Amino acid sequence: MSKGSHTRTLALLFGFSFLYAPIALLVIYSFNASRLVTVWGGFSTRWYVSLLENDQLIASAWMSLRVAFMSALLATVVGTCAAIALTRFGRFRGRLVFSSMIYAPLVMPEVITGLSLLLLFVALDIPRGFWTVVVAHATLGMCFVAVVVHARLVTLDRSLEEAAMDLGATPGRALMSVTLPLAAPSILAGYGLAFILSIDDLVIASFTSGPGSTTLPMRIYSQVRLGVTPEINAISTLLIAGVALVLVLGLALGLTERRQRA
Amino acid sequence: MKARRSLAERLVLGAPWAWLIVFFLIPFLIVVKISLSEAALAQPPYKPVFDLGDGWEALSKLGELSLSAYAGLADDWLYAQAYLSSLRLAFVSTLCTLALAYPLAYAMARAPLRLRPILVTLAVAPFWTSFLIRVYAWITILRDEGLLNHALLWLGLIAEPLHIFASDAAVVIGIVYSYLPFMVLPLYNAIARQPPELLEAAADLGASPTAAFWRVTVPLSMPGVLAGCLLVFIPAIGEFVIPDLLGGSDTLMIGRTLWVEFFDNRDWPAASAVAVVLLALLLGPMALYERSQMAEAGS
Fold it and tell me: pTM of the entire structure?
């Protein structure tokens, strides 16, 4: 038994170092004084200072945040509706097509999603810009929200909702005041997921954005193509720190909630 | 079965329906339509075949549909090679991801109960950080003068730098790394939910731990293996960022071909035809994936 547990510890150590070593190296080398990314030239924060002077990068970061905020909001509203429809509406007409369309974008290659949405906007003569990226990201995000919220809704005890209705609540009222509050953590997680998907996306944004709506990944990508610089490490480190903060907060929130319930 | 739905219910059902039809279904039909048009030096760069605005007259124009984009696809051996090489790289990457993810998922599922939520969060957390950044991190590691070669030279394991960067091997490493969380999670779920009594029963019946692992744990985790493999394989085929940043100029992948046709050559019909054929290829695996997901969701 103890031999097996050693092997398993080794598997954990190996797996997690593979996952985290590249990220750790990226962060370490963002504090490198040398311009050469692979030669250590001493500790420095000069690349963070030069980030602050890079107006284009800051503008695209704002654009990304705005797009992510709006698209995740839309995705959460529509995606939650889809999840409710899937769990509460029984076998409505076209259910199979509906759920196929919910699951398909999760694995659909991004180049196809991006191209098809761009061609839609061109066909409708809609100028590309902020809103076209928002709509494209919301389309992807709503499917993820729907899956996350659906997974939570199917585990909820229907009898709570039925009790509310026995007490005179309409089905809609029972949904709003019983089911949705219980599903709130998953809805919040869905929003976070949609936000992250949007702020990370390069391919779909490249197809659907126009002049003046360059997102942060698009800016980073064009800089990487020109050559690897420590400045990219610096902006990456800031992004990773942001995500880590949100994750730790989310985990802490989840843990306290579980403790309260226990 | 309710006879009529209330207005609110119809709104809840109608909003996602409308959204999916307008922004998911119709765009695909447009891709198909444009793949049947001819390229032109215009803005947008294709000859419009028919407009929905033409109404019934559009039907009479069906004869003007052009297969030239598909003929171009069939004529040029490069496209076929790009499809085949995408399939090959995605397949190899999926197997490597599985080989790496299974021991990790197994160890996670057998860890003490109180540690498991933390381990799951750790395994999924990289997925929440930018995909582009994680691929970028590998450039500095894999380059000829990169960190990996520095380390190996310093250790004396190699005499001269390995040329991994800008090759198919780098693309495989990139895919394995980026998609690992997608493989670990379904595997973990499939292993963690197996009742521990099964292994005790196997041991009582005389099976060694190794035999029990191969004859009980592994077969029972097959739904997780299938879901994980499809979650890696399908998106990997159409991957653009990884082959573009880590692959060499001779690394052919169809997602990159589509990108080049669209952005560099501005040949929209060709890009659309590439997308239609890619989608046709993926239809089988995607149907399989959807079936496994819906079975999982119990719907």
Answer: 0.88
